[in-house]
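**User:**
Make up any protein.

**Assistant:**
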Amino acid sequence: MLIVSANVNGVRAASRRGGLDWLAAREADVYALQEVRATHDQLHEVLAESPLAGLHVVHASASNLGQCGVTLLTRERPLAERIGVGVAEFDRQGRWIEVDLPSSRGTVTVASAYVHTGEAGTERQDEKYRFLDAISSRLTLLRGGDAVVCGDLNVAHRDVDIKNWKGNRGKAGFLEAERAYFDDWFDRLGWVDVGRAHGGDGPGPYTWWSWRGKAFDNDAGWRIDYQLASPSLAPRVGSVDIGRADTYAQRWSDHAAVAVAYAD
């Protein structure tokens, strides 16, 4: 089972830039997309005109149009689908969606998540912590089965996950309190950061670079896009690939996709 996760930075813009063609060429079984920024009708219209047409679509849009939005595209029809992380505050924000898919072992749950950017010392950061709390509760429930949580989690876990880690201490995305959630998920709950487990000691590989300046050309990035595998699923990871564009001109998002193959 190949799962490709990508923050598309707006599905309509990604389509115009060739992003949906790029994704379709991966021939994945599951596509987990974040920051879709589209209504249901807009998403289906874009997909119908793309090589991804015909896949099963589960979509959670945001009540504030033009923001957030998460989608799962699957070749197999989902056995079940759920929108939201289980906390009413976030139900209409388009930040969490999950499906149960058939597998040789019974079912596998796949989630697409988009965590807040946050802003240190503000209500935006408090809201981000509440969402991370909700994710912790959900990961506790999912850890007993085969599950993978994909997405833009907007936190660089370790120094090797951000190029300018010294300059970003104290800033949202690299706060000690944010990183502590990841410590808890990995150390206490047993979830595995697939990208780091198969990507070596680092630094990088990064998954996000600013559009501005020479960040991409200088590989001054952040690793904030993840696939987290549950304890039973993690040993079945076969390969991990970060879809970094070859050149700035070939970028169709400010993020790189994360592709992981799991043995069924």
In short: The mean pLDDT is 96. The chain has one domain: 2-262.
